């Protein structure tokens, strides 16, 4: 069972790292680029000197491949984590405290469910983002505003899911040792002399 446990630990750690890396990159880019007054060639006329919005546009364009890579790493690590968890449950390897076992399995299940929801909703959200980018490049402010409004609504839900996933995967990592390590057996009662 040691290889399965090792793979599970690595998968959970990589899953957490993928979430944290994408989140950190987003915080850095969406904070810095709007403040720097960047200019994106070809869309300056659309933004009409609004360097804050142009900075957000640039950050989104720059980070789209990072978010896609993060999603694929998460899908892979989630599949490995769920598979290892199922294997360990079936073989009875979880011999730790009942609370830790239940919490660990619940964390993995919730994280996987959130990621499945992400996979289900991401195509529509990405479609709105592409529509926004296309409208910006076509200088169609009405279509851009409509697509951005739809994207922003979906993005708020995705962001909440992303943050929740971070804490749920972290919770799984924290609960794993308590779920695996056998609970100490009670000491035998002393015999009367």
Structure notes:
This protein is mainly alpha-helical and 193 residues long. The chain has one domain. The chain has 5 helices and no strands. Helix 3 packs antiparallel against helix 4 and helix 4 runs antiparallel to helix 5.
Explain the layout of strands and helices.
Blueprint: H1 2-36, H2 44-47, H3 51-90, H4 98-137, H5 141-180
Helix pairs in contact: 1-3, 1-5, 3-4, 4-5
Q: How many separate helices?
A: 5
Beta-strand portion reads: under 5%
Query: What is the alpha-carbon Rg in Å?
Result: 23 Å
Relative helix content: over 70%
Domain count: 1
Characterize the biggest β-sheet.
none
Number of β-strand runs: 0
Give the N-to-C terminal Cα separation.
44 Å
**What structural class should be given to the helix and strand makeup?**
mainly alpha
- Overall mean pLDDT stands at 92
Give the key terms.
0% strand, 5 helices, 193 residues
Question: Can you describe this structure in just a few lines?
Answer:
This protein is mainly alpha-helical. It is 82% helix and 0% strand.
């Amino acid at each position: 069972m040691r290889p399965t446990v090792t793979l599970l630990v690595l998968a959970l750690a990589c899953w957490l790292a993928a979430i944290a890396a994408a989140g950190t990159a987003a915080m850095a880019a969406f904070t810095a680029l709007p403040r720097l007054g960047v200019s994106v060639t070809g869309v300056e006329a659309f933004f009409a000197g609004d360097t804050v919005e142009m900075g957000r546009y640039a950050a989104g364009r720059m980070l789209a491949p990072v978010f896609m890579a993060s999603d694929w790493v998460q899908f892979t690590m989630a599949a490995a984590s769920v598979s290892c968890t199922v294997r360990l449950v079936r073989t009875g390897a979880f011999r730790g405290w009942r609370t830790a076992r239940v919490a660990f399995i619940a964390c993995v299940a919730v994280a996987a469910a959130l990621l499945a929801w992400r996979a289900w909703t991401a195509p529509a959200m990405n479609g709105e983002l592409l529509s926004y980018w296309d409208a910006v490049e076509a200088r169609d402010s009405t279509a851009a505003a409509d697509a951005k409004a739809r994207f922003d609504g979906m993005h708020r839900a995705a962001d909440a899911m992303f943050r929740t996933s971070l804490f749920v995967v972290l919770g799984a990592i924290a609960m794993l040792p308590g779920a695996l390590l056998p609970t100490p057996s009670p000491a035998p009662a002393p015999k009367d002399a």
